[in-house]
Amino acid sequence: MQWFAIREGFTAALSSPGLMVALLGLLSFSLWQVIQRKYRWRGRRIVRWVSLLPLLLYFSLLLPVGQIVAEKGLTVWLPPDKGQTADAIVVLGRGPDLQKSRIQEATQLWKAGRAPQIFVSGRGDAPKISRQLRAKGIKASALASEDCSRTTEENAEFTAKLLSPEVRSIILVTDPPHMLRSLLTFRSFGFRVIPHLSDVAYQSSDRNFAIRVVREYAGLIAYGLKGRYFPRETATEMSTPAESLS
Fold this sequence. Notes:
By secondary structure, the chain is an alpha/beta fold. It has helices at residues 2-14, 17-38, 41-47, 53-61, 64-75, 99-111, 126-135, 152-162, 176-188, 207-225, and strands at residues 88-92, 118-121, 143-146, 169-174, 192-197, 243-244. A six-stranded mixed β-sheet has the order 5-4-1-2-3-6, sandwiched between helices. Helix 5 (64-75) runs parallel beside helix 10 and helix 9 (176-188) runs parallel beside helix 10 (207-225). The radius of gyration is 21 Å and the shape is elongated.
């Protein structure tokens, strides 16, 4: 619960340019004071610009070009989807504004014969996405979901526990900013992951897009510091079974 409170506070701060400028200005001033005391005048002229980096980075993210570059930094490392088949398609919920593109991508993948089943993961999203997939013609026997996970870590953990042990390769469907952290996390649970990007519901110039990108950088670093990209073992059972739509 503490993590969710911190995350929501961080998002609220990012949504308020005035507050962010004030906070980053205070950070820059503090860095400047440290540099003033530590470095002599020759070094100050070079190093003092470091104190302005937090503000410069934030203002760059308010510009469309800065947002595009920041998103590229999250997607350039992804392996391409070359059309390989897999054991399952895994769709991650990320809120109502991103559901439509996920439903479209998962439907196309299944109808193209890329995988025999679809698994939807995400609290609040899984039931809605699953119902829409049924309406798109996906067979009930090919659908399953879990409506418990609230984080990317739980998406991967619960998917690993609920899918059949024979499911080792998956086509992972999520939005571009979220994919790198998702791919690394699912790999840590033993999956061979084929990343398949779904579109976001807003343009790169939208402030919501900038907030999502910044949050992903923060999440990527936080997961790395917590060691969530290293291989780990999972339990074979979970207290709540997968929700079958049959």
